[in-house]
Amino acid sequence: MKRIFVVGGAGKIARYLAPRLAKQGDQALSLYRHFDQEPALKALSAIPVYGDLQKLSPESLALLMDGCDAVVFTAGAGGKGGTATTTAVDGVGLEKSVEAAKLAGIKRFILVSAFPEAGRGRHISDTFEHYMQVKKAADVYLAATDLDWVIVRPGTLTDDAATARINTGLAIRYGHVSRDNVAATLAYIVAHDSINRVIIELTDGDTPIEQVLTPLARY
Ligand SMILES: NC(=O)c1ccc[n+]([C@@H]2O[C@H](COP(=O)([O-])OP(=O)(O)OC[C@H]3O[C@@H](n4cnc5c(N)ncnc54)[C@H](OP(=O)(O)O)[C@@H]3O)[C@@H](O)[C@H]2O)c1
């Protein structure tokens, strides 16, 4: 059984991920910051871990991560609180989480990032441009470490039901992807350590997850 520390553990992707991890015999430890989220996380088979990413130091976050096998980072400000909060959560929060993983001796780190083409071909706000810059800087930060990282760049997220059929690869056409398909992909990556040090783009597609992810593994 792997213990997976989920930063952004009360988020929508994370809520799909926790039961998927449980189903494959793994355990989500889900960071959350509002006490009323705790019962729902327990009901999803997660162990709720209270903490605010903006307030935690890398050292205190490392203590919360102690004993985990991997970190999944799927936190995000979601545009709330302006550019400063995006920087604090999606940017500095990611950097803190990486440093905390190192301090806790956790090698594996899986980051939910964003698809670079998001916003292409339409007029985007300064806020969205800032978000995309922060997301890319987070990818750069993680990829420069010697951790066993995987960066997943989903297309536009939907709440459609999971199909367990996706399109993924080093470079694919932009599209939508259901949060549950993202969660299923993350769970598959958690279970397969051989998928390592790779950036993958992700949309809904026609191919079963294992079939499309297996070629990305490094043996
Ligand atoms: N929307 C898209 O189309 C899209 C596309 C590609 C990638 N993404 C990325 O995918 C990520 C996950 O998506 P999602 O739908 O699961 O988002 P979500 O439901 O907004 O989840 C993000 C989680 O981060 C948590 N968070 C924010 N600030 C925090 C803090 N200071 N301390 C602890 N937790 C904090 C939020 O906590 P609360 O529940 O307490 O607010 C929330 O639960 C997004 O954040 C985004 O960066 C999004």
Automatic annotation (TrEMBL):
Pfam families: NAD_binding_10. Residues 8-192 form the NAD(P)-binding domain. SUPFAM superfamilies: NAD(P)-binding Rossmann-fold domains (SSF51735). It comes from the Bacteria. InterPro entries: NAD(P)-bd_dom, NAD(P)-bd_dom_sf. PANTHER family: FLAVIN REDUCTASE-RELATED, UPF0659 PROTEIN YMR090W. This is NAD-dependent dehydratase. It comes from Shewanella mangrovi.
